[in-house]
Model the fold of this input.
Amino acid sequence: MRVAAPLLALGAAFGAHAQKDLTGHWSQRFHEDLPERGAGPEIGDYTGLPINDAARLRADSWHAAKWTMPERQCEPHPADYGPRGPAALRIGSTVDPISQDVVSWDITVMWMLPHRKVYMDGRPHPSPNAQHSWQGFSTGAWEGDMLKVTTTHLKEGWLRRNGLPRSDKATLVEYFIRNENYLTLVTVVMDPVYLTEPLVRTSDWVLDTGLQLSPFSCIPAIEIERPRGAVPHHLPGTNPFLEEYPQRHGLPVESARGGAQTMYPDYALRLKRLVEGEVP
Done:
């Protein structure tokens, strides 16, 4: 037993060695998915997204003036989209004073400063009927040197800032991967309401010791006078902007309408035939 105890302690130390320290301030990179990092994607651009007809109808009916409504002006990005927006990150941790285990990761995003807590203590997720929020309920576990985070209880949000919806039935799975001073986040959104397949995306940051998140305040105001109860929208079939994106970029309208088939390399052959007019 005199030998066993030190060996157990040594084994525990080696077991924790694969875990990476994610704490710090992380500066976003703009070399990928630039529209999401800035002003947002173009209206009608659903290319490469595994959406179904219900999602397409919701997006076609969306009106950008929604964001001028006082009740919408201060909505933060939900947990699955926030890191893809203007999203420098601050990641901290809460450590058990006795065991020195990380009991939660605390993630704050620059835009509107939404705060997420990722529980690492093995607690279960609440009942499906529990309250939903913009950041949801997140639990984490290490898989090798990757932190896997599972998030449920998300309020209805968006896949892109052009009206593509994400339902409150969705589950978000994330993998935080640190390689020295680089942080990669792989997100997998599974939505039985609006997606036919999981939506997989990646985002990257660089450790920035000089970065400091600034205070963020949002005060709703009347930007446009409207009749009481009026909500900006397009009725089905009346949105005049949907074909501007494919026309501007010389794409067939079909390709801009998205769907799982547009995600895969095989679609390039059909796209070529569409451009050449070989298929209706």
Remarks:
- Residues 5-15 have pLDDT under 50 and may be disordered.
